[in-house]
Amino acid sequence: MSELVTGDAVVLGLRPARLPSRALALAIDLVVVWIVFILVSIGLAVATVTLDEAASAAIAVATFLLVLVGGPIAVETLSHGRSLGKLACGLRVVRDDGGPIRFRHALVRGAMGVVEILMTLGVFACIASLVSARGRRLGDVFAGTLVVRERVSAGRGIAVPPPPPWLVGRFAGLDLSAVPDELWLAIRQYLTRMQQLDAEVGLSMAERLAGELAVRTGVPVPPGVPAAAYLAGVVNERQARDARRVFTAAQADPLGQAGVGVGSNPVGVMGPAWADSSVAPHDTVSPLAPAVPAAPGEPGVSETEEPGNRKPGTGFAPPA
Questions:
Q1: How far is the C-alpha of 49 from the C-alpha of 42, rounded, in Å?
Q2: What's the pLDDT tens digit per position in 165-207?
Q3: Is 259 left (phi over 0), alpha (psi -120 to 50) or beta?
Q4: For residue 58, what are the β-bridge partners?
Q5: Tally of CA atoms within 13 A in the half-sphere of 242 that contains its CB
Q6: Contact yes or no for 74/49 (Cβ under 8 A)
Q7: Pairing outcome for strands 11-16 and 2-5
Q8: Which of 65, 179, 233, 290 lies 20 to 30 Å (CA to CA) from residue 129?
Q9: 136-169: per-residue pLDDT in tens?
Q10: DSSP secondary structure string, 233-300?
């Protein structure tokens, strides 16, 4: 697995696509593009039958550039790196830092693709992909992009660390409907890699993600709660809601006729590492209520959960 490091030094566990899968995706894209090109050419030939030879040649060149070159560029730009072939093969074009591509990246890839793929029948692209350690062709090198695999097996997922006990259930009142999947994915990547980051870099990244999450939920980060612990607590709340939703659907339809069963993935892009049905529902607590750990000796609280101590294995400390 190739580790891509973002500008904020967050390690992204992305798997670069290799030549066989890329060749299959490219073949699907070329078939679709050539079918469209042939249909458009036939239509234009019928419509411009009365034009002279020079005008017909100009229209043919324009059609070639718009369909065979401009078409893939437009598709990759609008779909953020997912063409029809890549979507079918579970691939996606991303920047070197793991972010979505923009028009300039797709333009460079498309321009180089004319030489690498169309003019040389893909020979240059195959050679460059075989030589590159990450399977990149020349268009990827010049554009600063990489084709990665979006679909990986469930067994490769990394578990997200649980939040501190004093934060469990505290964010039950948050509205998480406005949080995009991209932000959930970035938070997951941070939480699963935060122990590998430099302390200052990790703190800066956690504060930025916590700020973005607070803007999406409409509720500021509670004072005294570390940014990393806040992220873990909100993630735990989302995980608990999804578990309750699956549990409720399973009770209402025990035979799975409603289409929601144990094998479904209601969490979307977060993958199997987020779907933990063992999380039990908890009481509703105001997200801004102060975090006051229970006194030692009370039921359900051990001596190691007092203020100043850390829950083993979580990596989060309670507020001062």
A1: 11
A2: 888 888 888 888 888 888 888 888 888 888 877 788 888 888 9
A3: left
A4: none
A5: 23
A6: no
A7: antiparallel
A8: 65
A9: 899 999 999 989 887 655 445 567 788 888 888 8
A10: HHHHHHHHHHHHHHHHHHHH-TT-TTS--TT--TTGGG-TTT--TTPPP-----TTS---PPPTTSTT
